[in-house]
Structure to design on (714 residues):
């Protein structure tokens, strides 16, 4: 019972102790070593010998220990301190084999222990836990380092966000070590759905900013979400999920964000067909900043042919139908898929495509889970109707080269959608809210905003970032917000010249009780508000400089160039009226 | 009965008794303290220490600590003996003998702690 209490007292976050495991495994070799030395030494002290003058002499323990220290380790110096008698030699020739074998056995055991997979796992876990503890910045735990996890970790790393990876496949963790990342990402080979793995990854640490469950398996993601919510309810969970039942289960215990790649793409495509500008807006604001701005696409309205009616096909068909399109489905097993009126077939043969009305269709969705089939469907369909608008599902990144050659109008890649969505949620949670609100607006509104963004973005994807008006996020601006004098326009002021404005757009102002979409200039900003902006990286830097620098902020809000108390006193003494025409820029 | 427990108890108690055997006698008289017994005490103490390795319980930790103390004192006594007899050549003077035997006495106390712990642990294991 004492043992139980003592074990329970150890923190579960600690990795199993390597030292103790090592010692426990070394018990037998150490005992063999001690015993063989004892027998050899004792025997040698008992053997009769003669010294240099021919008097009877017996070796003492000190010399016996010395002798076996150099013979057992196969170093060998000779017979010390006096040449041995035959009796001593007889014993030594037995004892040397005994002690050498004991050493070989002990060393062999040590080497075998270090090569033992179980021991190496413990070593790796201990090292992983140490690296997680050493992380000095907030970090996200990414469970699953497949295509999705890889894209996400890469994107977060490029954004300077720290991550910790847990994956069940040791090969993927090796890939992580080889990946070209700016900062070191600790990786653990373990089943992330086991709570122990999450604890090792530091889910209960104060610096853990969130858990992302993007393993291949819905049930594993569900287990990760539950474990996280139980172990540390404060931490937000983003989980990938492809089945509706599991998604409902996840939502029931408060998983913060559930990403269903098929559902999400279905709704994107629906938006793209019904509201191209809104779709474009989303493309621009969620793409990797700095990459070229995507061209506007205009999916046609009319009859769409859909090959493959799985989870993806169903989501797309629902969404297309909701926006007033006719959908004609080709499916291998129409009854099993729950769409008996569908054309039976895989869509790779011309006659099934004909039967589905490909010649009169405006668009094609190749949505089977097999990339080769999808390629075949697209090539065959284009031969029958070259004007088709083609949406293609790409399942594996490795097939990207083939898909690029085919050049479909839209490529849907589940892993990329999940990674991009998770990235947006983690780095810009306000953006998520922005799109939720924007969905309620009309095309003209989206069109106008897209034009404004295009103006500030100068042909590359703009950055979007949020400013928290508090002591940490924007210290200088927060002072003015407390005084009740801060307005949106002040956050857009150019610190070099307040009559200029920084080329950025305030997208959303969020506070506890309200959300203001595209807040106009005179909107008052209160302490604790969060404002989402978009613009170039350069303007982001200038704005960050502004909101943290009290002098700049004072200049932008009041127009006064701040100065020291002595200077102000001198100026009052001199009473020159030229105060307003003070030099620009820093003081 | 468990063979592992028998072996464990055997070595711990043997370590104590051998240690006691070396320790008992006139403090300054080298004739009453046999070096063979010191050797045996060291060997048995080392084996007892190794047997205690790797136990992560609280009692196991104290066991190991007591054993390490005994090892340290006995090895110190052996080194002192080797230095006196072979190093300086002064031989076992009453002063040196007293130092060696009192070191062994300290080790004996540590061994007593080990045995007491063993008895407490056994007494608490109700079956």
């Amino acid at each position: 019972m004492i043992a139980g209490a003592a074990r329970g007292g150890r923190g579960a976050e600690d990795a199993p102790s390597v030292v103790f495991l090592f010692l426990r495994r070394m018990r037998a070799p150490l005992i063999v070593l001690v015993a063989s030395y004892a027998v050899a030494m004792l025997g040698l002290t008992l053997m009769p010998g003669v010294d240099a003058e021919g008097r009877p002499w017996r070796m003492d323990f000190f010399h016996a220990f010395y002798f076996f220290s150099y013979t057992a380790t196969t170093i060998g110096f000779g017979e010390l301190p006096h040449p041995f008698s035959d009796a001593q030699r007889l014993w030594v020739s037995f004892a040397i084999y005994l002690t050498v074998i004991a050493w070989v056995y002990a060393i062999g055991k040590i080497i075998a222990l270090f090569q033992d997979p179980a021991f190496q796992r413990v070593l790796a876990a201990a090292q992983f836990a140490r690296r997680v503890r050493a992380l000095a910045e907030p970090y996200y735990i990414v469970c699953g380092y497949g295509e999705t996890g890889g894209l996400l970790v890469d994107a977060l790393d490029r954004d300077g966000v720290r991550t910790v990876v847990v994956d069940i496949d040791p090969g993927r963790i090796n890939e992580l070590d080889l990946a070209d990342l700016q900062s070191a990402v600790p990786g653990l080979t373990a089943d992330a759905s086991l709570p122990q793995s999450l604890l090792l990854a530091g889910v209960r640490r104060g610096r853990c900013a969130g858990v992302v469950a993007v393993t291949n398996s819905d049930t594993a993601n569900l287990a990760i979400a539950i474990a996280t919510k139980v172990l540390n309810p404060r931490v937000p969970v983003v989980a990938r999920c492809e089945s509706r039942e599991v998604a409902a289960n996840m939502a029931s215990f408060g998983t913060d964000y559930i990403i269903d790649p098929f559902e999400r793409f279905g709704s994107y495509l629906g938006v793209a067909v019904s509201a191209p500008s809104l779709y474009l807006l989303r493309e621009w604001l969620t793409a990797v900043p700095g990459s070229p701005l995507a061209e506007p696409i205009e999916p046609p309205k009319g009859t769409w042919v859909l090959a493959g009616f799985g989870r993806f096909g169903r989501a797309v068909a629902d969404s297309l139908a909701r926006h007033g399109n006719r959908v004609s489905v080709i499916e291998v097993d129409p009854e099993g898929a729950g769409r008996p009126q569908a054309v039976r077939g895989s869509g790779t043969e011309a006659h099934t495509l004909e039967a589905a009305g490909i010649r009169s269709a405006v668009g094609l969705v190749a949505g089977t889970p097999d990339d080769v089939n999808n390629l075949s469907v697209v090539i065959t369909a284009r031969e029958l109707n070259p004007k088709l608008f083609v949406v293609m599902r790409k399942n594996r990144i490795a097939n990207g080269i083939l898909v690029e050659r085919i050049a479909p109008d839209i490529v849907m890649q589940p892993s990329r959608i999940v990674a991009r969505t998770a990235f947006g949620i983690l780095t810009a949670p306000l953006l998520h809210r922005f799109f939720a609100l924007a969905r309620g607006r009309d095309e003209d509104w989206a069109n106008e905003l897209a034009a404004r963004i295009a103006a500030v973005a100068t042909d590359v994807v703009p950055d979007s970032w949020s400013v928290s008006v508090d002591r940490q996020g924007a210290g200088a601006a927060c002072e003015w917000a407390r005084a009740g004098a801060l307005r949106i326009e002040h956050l857009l002021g150019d610190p070099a010249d307040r009559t200029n404005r920084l080329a950025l757009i305030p997208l959303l102002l969020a506070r506890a009780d309200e959300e203001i979409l595209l807040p106009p200039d005179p909107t008052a900003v209160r302490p604790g508000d969060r404002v989402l902006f978009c613009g170039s990286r350069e303007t982001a830097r200038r704005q960050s400089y502004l909101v943290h620098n009290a002098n700049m902020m004072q200049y932008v809000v009041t127009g006064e160039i701040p100065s020291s108390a002595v200077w102000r006193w001198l100026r009052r003494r001199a009473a020159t009226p030229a105060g307003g025409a003070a030099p620009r820029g820093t003081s | 009965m468990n063979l592992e427990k028998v072996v464990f108890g055997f070595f711990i108690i043997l370590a104590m008794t051998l240690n006691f055997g070396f320790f008992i006698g006139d403090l300054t008289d080298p004739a009453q303290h046999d070096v063979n017994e010191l050797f045996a005490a060291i060997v048995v103490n080392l084996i007892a220490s190794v047997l205690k390795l790797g136990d992560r319980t609280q009692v196991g930790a104290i066991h190991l600590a007591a054993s390490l103390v005994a090892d340290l004192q006995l090895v110190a006594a052996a080194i002192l003996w080797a230095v006196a007899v072979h190093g300086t050549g002064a031989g076992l003077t009453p002063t040196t003998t007293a130092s060696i035997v009192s070191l062994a006495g300290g080790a004996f106390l540590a061994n007593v702690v080990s045995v007491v712990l063993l008895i407490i642990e056994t007494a608490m294991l109700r079956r």
Notes: The radius of gyration of chain B is 16 Å. The interface with chain A takes residues 35-36, 39, 43, 46-47, 50-51, 53-60, 78, 81-82, 85-86, 124 of chain B (CB under 8 Å). The CA atoms of residues 55 and 67 of chain B lie 13 Å apart. Residues 3-124 of chain B form one domain.
